[in-house]
Specification:
This is Polysaccharide biosynthesis protein. The chain is of the alpha/beta class. The chain has three domains: 145 residues, no CATH class; 118 residues, NAD(P)-binding Rossmann-like Domain (Rossmann fold, 3-Layer(aba) Sandwich); 286 residues, NAD(P)-binding Rossmann-like Domain (Rossmann fold, 3-Layer(aba) Sandwich), CATH 3.40.50.720. The chain is built from 19 helices and 22 strands. Strands 10-9-8-11-12-13-18-22-21 form a nine-stranded mixed sheet, sandwiched between helices. Helix 1 crosses helix 2, helix 1 crosses helix 4 and helix 11 packs parallel to helix 13. The longest helix is centred in the first third of the chain and has 37 residues. The chain is elongated.
């Protein structure tokens, strides 16, 4: 260990002394050059005197460098501070030389030893320029050689504007970077063919497979600020078939302390390519609705519930009660909120099925507004666990609804799903039954009940995109249940914003439906995810079609047969005009369902099909409960309603 320590230190100090030696050589050359300049580039000076003066000048320079420490900087990281140190050393050297010359003239300490002051000035200027230039020359040579010999990635930057230049700086100045920027791509004809930072600007037309392979490009970084989703989708889809990773620079407002860091340049996600413009909802009504109110969120640690909580934290509520039975997830949310400076909330571990426990919570906190997001949501699991699905999604919702009426809650907002429309599985049927019970209780006019209905949420627990990411990490294959299966998608913040807005605009009894744009083909989504990962389909990762799971259908719907919509003040949010219900019959049957489920009496699935006549099982053992005349193919007729 001692030997290694000595070797490492010897190497460290040797490099420092080498820099000092080179600096002295530069000073010597500068001194010779200053004489030539002083005497009009001729030898009309006494060389013998110069040879006597040179060691003195070098001695003075050595003392100055040792005092200032200008030789200690790491040459390959030369910066403004190093140039400042060189300037100080040269100034000190000049002052010492001038002082020595004037002193010698005054006291005649050394005979015939003098240096013209003009040479001292010229020498100082030449030395400063030469020492600074040498630093940057060595730095450039080192960078060039290191980028050539490292296993470097070659990157194209899409966008030669200010953001593109800052992206170049962030990539090349990153200390651990093994990346080389080989060009910019820009549509501005004034920039095409020119160079920025010594890097050529190309036209977008050069982005062909032959160009990518010829230049050995491994990454394309999009750094166009405020680019429209449709435009980004168009540009990225033009590259996904090439063997490159596609990345993008975050918006300026997300940069750390106003500066872009290389670690912030992230890979383009599939969420960026779903061709859906972000929803922009005016939140003034939400602020008024929750102002000085006690708000309770059930399922508050789940995907939707936790985002509802995060967005509620922006407003001036009186108290926020977060209820969830998942202890770990609730703890994580608690810590997150505390770290973000939110303290006015109460996390409660409780099960919504425990009516006595929930009654105590309602009695203690007296909520004015309830957001009910607690539910079981996984279709294949619930298909053969109908007891739990009914207990949570029906009986649990029923308990919270009844307590809301009993404790005079102003508004109750229910988070439903598009799977409740013409359900083909237990989970969807339980959510539809919950919707129906809420419609029944709205007739009492004591609490305003509002339902929101939307499709799949990007990034939520168990959704398809996180599943595909895990499968890609393991090397595949990606599993798709059917080549033609499609789904609607929205982001978690958008879904939560919709729920909050529904709570604000709802007058009671509405089912709010969100215009989710076009449905997405899951097979195409899987192929794009493979390509965005820099891999090839099917050479690197294949897609395996596994067949529809129990209860799964090809096409999700936002409206049932016979339903239509009415507009609201927001073009993306509509009110579903649902069919009338026989409220007494529905309430009686739902009560019967909950009791039978509690005591394991009778066939609860058959009873669910009585309550929801359109519930027709698909690809499931539960199909035996359907009538032979029932049509199991899901209707597409209502898919066009929201776009008409």
């Amino acid at each position: 260990m001692i030997q290694n320590y000595l070797i490492n230190n010897a190497q460290r100090y040797a490099s420092k002394w080498l820099v000092l030696a080179i600096d002295l050589m530069v000073v010597a050359a500068s001194f010779l050059l200053s004489y030539f300049i002083r005497f009009n580039l001729t030898f009309n000076f006494e060389v013998n005197k110069l040879l006597v003066q040179l060691p003195v000048v070098l001695g003075i320079a050595l003392v100055s460098f040792l005092i200032i420490g200008s030789y200690k900087g790491v040459v390959r990281h030369t910066g403004v501070r190093d140039v400042y140190n060189i300037f100080n050393a040269i100034c000190l050297s000049s002052i010492l030389a001038i002082f020595m010359i004037i002193t010698n003239r005054q006291f005649e300490l050394v005979d015939n030893f003098t240096i013209p002051l003009s040479i001292i000035i010229i020498h100082s200027l030449i030395s400063f320029v030469a020492l600074t230039a040498s630093r940057y020359i060595f730095k450039s040579i080192y960078s060039s050689l290191s980028s050539e010999f490292k296993a470097s990635k070659k990157v194209l930057i899409y966008g030669a504007g200010e953001s593109g230049i800052l992206t170049y700086d962030a990539i090349t100045n990153h200390t651990k970077s093994n990346t080389k920027v080989i060009g910019y791509v820009d549509r501005d004809p004034k920039k095409i063919g020119k160079q920025i930072n010594g890097v050529t600007v190309y036209a977008p037309e050069v982005l062909t497979e032959s160009f990518i392979l010829k230049k050995d490009v491994s990454e394309v970084v999009f750094c166009i600020q405020q680019i429209e989703p449709n435009k980004l989708k168009e540009l990225v889809e033009g590259l996904v078939d090439f063997p490159v990773l596609v990345k993008k620079v975050p918006p300026v407002e997300d940069w750390i302390n106003g500066e872009l860091n290389a670690s912030q340049i992230k890979q383009v996600q599939i969420e960026d390519l779903l061709n859906r413009p972000p929803i922009d909802i005016i939140n003034s009504k939400i602020s008024q609705e929750v102002n000085d109110k006690v708000v309770l969120v059930s399922g508050g640690a789940g995907s939707i519930g936790s985002e509802i909580v995060r967005q509620l934290c922006k407003y001036n509520y009186k108290a926020l009660i977060i209820v969830d039975q998942a202890e770990s997830a609730l703890y994580d949310l608690q810590q997150e909120l505390k770290q973000n400076g939110h303290v006015n909330f109460t996390p409660i571990v409780a099960d919504i099925r425990d009516k006595n426990r929930m009654n105590n919570i309602f009695q203690e906190y007296k909520p004015n507004l309830v957001f009910h997001a607690a539910a079981y949501k996984h279709v294949p699991l619930m298909e053969y666990n109908s007891y739990e699905a009914i207990k949570i999604n029906v009986a649990g919702t029923k308990a919270i609804v009844d307590l809301s009426i009993a404790h005079k809650v102003d508004k109750f907002v229910f988070v439903s799903t598009d799977k409740a429309v013409n359900p083909t599985n237990v989970m969807g049927a339980t959510k539809r039954i919950a919707e129906m019970y809420i419609s029944c209780m709205q007739q009492e006019r004591k609490t305003k009940f509002i339902t929101t209905r939307f499709g799949n949420v990007l990034g939520s627990n168990g959704s398809v995109i996180p599943l595909f990411k895990k499968q890609i990490e393991k090397g595949g294959p990606l599993t798709v249940t059917h080549k033609d299966i499609t789904r609607y998608f929205m982001t978690i913040p958008e879904a939560s914003q919709l729920v909050l807005e529904a709570g604000a605009m709802g007058k009671g009894g509405e089912i709010f439906i969100f215009d989710m744009g076009k449905s997405v083909k899951i097979f195409d989504l899987a192929k794009n995810m493979i390509k965005l990962s820099g891999l090839r389909y099917p050479e690197d990762i294949d897609i395996k079609v596994t067949g529809l799971r129990p209860g799964e259908k090809l096409y999700e719907e936002l409206l049932a047969n016979g339903e239509n919509t009415m507009p609201t003040y927001h073009k993306k949010i509509m009110i579903g005009k649902v069919r009338d219900l026989d409220y007494n019959f529905v309430r009686t049957k739902i009560d019967e369902l909950c009791v039978n489920n509690m005591f394991f009496n009778g066939d609860t699935v058959k009873l669910m099909k009585e309550i929801v006549p359109e519930y027709i099982s698909n690809n499931s053992d539960l199909c035996k409960h359907d009538k032979a005349t029932d049509v199991k193919e899901p209707s597409k007729s209502n898919l066009k309603v929201l776009h008409s």
